[in-house]
Amino acid sequence: MKIRYLIFFLVLATYSIGVVGQESKPDTIQQNMNLKFQYESLIIPTVLIGYGVAGLESDGLKFVNTEIKEEFNEHVYERFTIDDISQYVPSASVYALNALGIKGKHNFKDRTIILGTAWLIMGSTVTGLKRTTKIKRPDGSSKTSFPSGHTATAFMGAEFLWQEYKDVSVWYGISGYLIASGTGFFRMYNDKHWLTDVAAGAGIGILSTKIAYWVHPFLKEKIFKDKESTYGVVMPFYNGKEYGLSLALVF
C-alpha cells in the first residue's frame, strides 16, 4: 500500500485533535465547564463533509477513489472486519472509564442524553443521505455507500470521548481519534467504502457530537430538568450479523 493513502488518516486524526484542542484552553474555569459554540469548531467537519459531497460529482475525486480501491485490491489478500467492532470503542470507552472510577465531565444521565442526541443526529443524517444518494459500494454489494456509517459512528464516539475526558488527559481523546481513523481506514481496506464516503462520515460524526453538546443545556433545562432520578445501562449486542450498543435510560 502506497504511503500517500495512509497519510490522509493520520492528518485527519491529528488535525481533528488540533482544532478541538483549541476548546480545551478556556480563559476561565467556568468556560472550561461549559462547551460554548465556536465557529472554528465547524472547520473540520465542514471540510470533510464538503470533500465527500464534492466527490459525488467530481471526476477527479472519483478517480482518486478508484485508484485507492485498486491499490487495496492489489495488496490485500485477507479482509479484517475489526471495523465492525472498533466503531463503537470510543463511545463505549467513556462508560468503561467511568466504571473504573475515572470521572469525565458529565454524570451518567447527562452524558447519555448527549450521546443519544448525537446518535439521533448522526443516524438520521447518514440514513437519509444513503437513501438519497444511492452510491454503489466498491464491492458492488449495495447502493448505500455514501456516507460511511461505521466511520460516522466512530468519529461521533471519538469526539464524545474527547469532550468528556480532554480535561483529565488529552491522550484519551487522541486514542479515540486514532481508533476512529483506523475504522475509516478499514472500511476502505475491506472494500466497503470510497475515500469520499469515509471523509463525509467522519465529518458527520464529529459535527453530530458537537451539536449534541451545544444543545444539551437547552434540552436539560426544557425537557429533563424535572427528572432527577435516572437509571440506565449501556450494553453491547450482536444479532448474528451486526454488532452495536444498546442504550437504556429510565427517568
Topology readout:
Elements: H1 3-20, H2 29-33, H3 43-54, H4 59-75, H5 83-86, H6 89-99, H7 108-133, H8 149-165, H9 170-189, H10 195-222, E1 231-238, E2 243-250
Antiparallel strand pairs: 1-2
Query: What fraction of residues sit in β-strands?
Result: 5-15%
Number of helices: 10
Radius of gyration: 18 Å
**What is the approximate shape?**
globular
Cross-sheet strand order for the largest sheet:
1-2
Mean pLDDT: 83
Describe the structure.
The protein is mainly alpha-helical and 251 residues long. The chain has one domain. It contains 10 helices and 2 strands. The chain has helices at 3-20, 29-33, 43-54, 59-75, 83-86, 89-99, 108-133, 149-165, 170-189, 195-222; strands at residues 231-238, 243-250. The protein has a two-stranded antiparallel sheet with strand order 1-2. Strand 1 and strand 2 form a beta hairpin. The model is unreliable at 24-34 (pLDDT under 50).
Short description, anyone?
63% of the residues lie in helices and 6% in strands. It has 251 residues and is mainly alpha-helical.
Notable characteristics:
about 250 residues; two-stranded antiparallel ribbon; mainly alpha; globular
